[in-house]
């Protein structure tokens, strides 16, 4: 057998062994699943978070392709439609829990109204939940939501800026128009003392459920 043939044979065996090793390393990684909640099929007036899905896919691709992060693991995700509704939010969560594979963490929902029932129920399954856009002040209550964390700040954090803007233009009177949802009602309750402290008078307060038209007409009379 010629030395040339032996060299080619060794080279082919080395290539085969290398390919097998790479394939084995890839398949031996443990899959870790994230359970995502996104408002996709939403009703009029609700907020769609469907655009977050491509961002999540990009993030997972970056992490999974980095050999220095989670070397023995691979992140994947499955998602349910929370529809930016409280009932749909808890339904999506229960389906997520009852359906394999096991999820290591919940991501979302995107709007506060759908997040509340999920965040209230998650501790019963010891499920950590991460919010990517909810800003309701109530989620700052760690006694009520011990396993809920978020990347966005509470809506009340913007109240000092609102007061500063009024002072900048020397506006001494304001009217408040608030939608009847916890996120906005609680933000208003936090804002009122700040306005009073700054000697800014509240001349009127109106609320609405879905359509603010009649409330706006009343305020501009």
UniProtKB/TrEMBL annotation:
GO biological process: gamma-aminobutyric acid signaling pathway
Key words of the record: G-protein coupled receptor, Glycoprotein, Membrane, Receptor, Signal, Transducer, Transmembrane, Transmembrane helix
Organism domain of life: Eukaryota
Signal peptide: 1-23
Transmembrane segments: none
UniProt-annotated location(s): Membrane
Receptor ligand binding region domain: residues covered: 54-209
GO molecular function: G protein-coupled GABA receptor activity
InterPro entries in alphabetical order: ANF_lig-bd_rcpt (IPR001828), GPCR3_GABA-B (IPR002455), Peripla_BP_I (IPR028082)
First-listed, main subcellular location of the protein, grouped into a coarse class: membrane
GO cellular component: G protein-coupled receptor heterodimeric complex
Protein's name in the database: Gamma-aminobutyric acid type B receptor subunit 1
Biological source species: Stylophora pistillata (Smooth cauliflower coral)
């Amino acid at each position: 057998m010629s030395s040339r043939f032996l060299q080619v044979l060794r080279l082919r065996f080395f290539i085969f062994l290398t390919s097998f090793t790479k394939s084995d390393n890839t398949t031996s990684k443990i899959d870790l699943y994230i359970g995502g909640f996104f408002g996709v099929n939403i009703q009029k007036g609700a907020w769609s978070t469907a655009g977050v899905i491509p961002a999540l896919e990009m993030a997972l691709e970056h992490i999974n392709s980095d050999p220095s992060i989670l070397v023995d693991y691979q992140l994947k995700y499955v998602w349910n439609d929370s529809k930016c509704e409280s009932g749909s939010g808890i339904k999506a969560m229960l389906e997520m829990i009852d359906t394999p594979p096991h999820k290591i963490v919940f991501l979302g929902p995107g709007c506060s109204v759908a997040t509340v029932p999920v965040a209230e129920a998650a501790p019963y399954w010891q499920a950590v939940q991460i919010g990517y856009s909810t800003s309701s002040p109530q989620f700052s209550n760690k006694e009520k939501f011990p396993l809920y964390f978020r990347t966005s700040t509470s809506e009340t954090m913007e109240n000092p800026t609102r007061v500063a803007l009024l002072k900048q233009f020397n506006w001494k009177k304001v009217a408040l128009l608030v939608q009847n949802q916890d996120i906005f009602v609680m933000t208003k309750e936090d804002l009122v003392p700040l306005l009073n402290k700054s000697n800014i008078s509240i001349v009127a307060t109106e609320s609405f459920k879905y359509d603010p038209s009649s409330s706006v007409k009343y305020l501009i009379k």
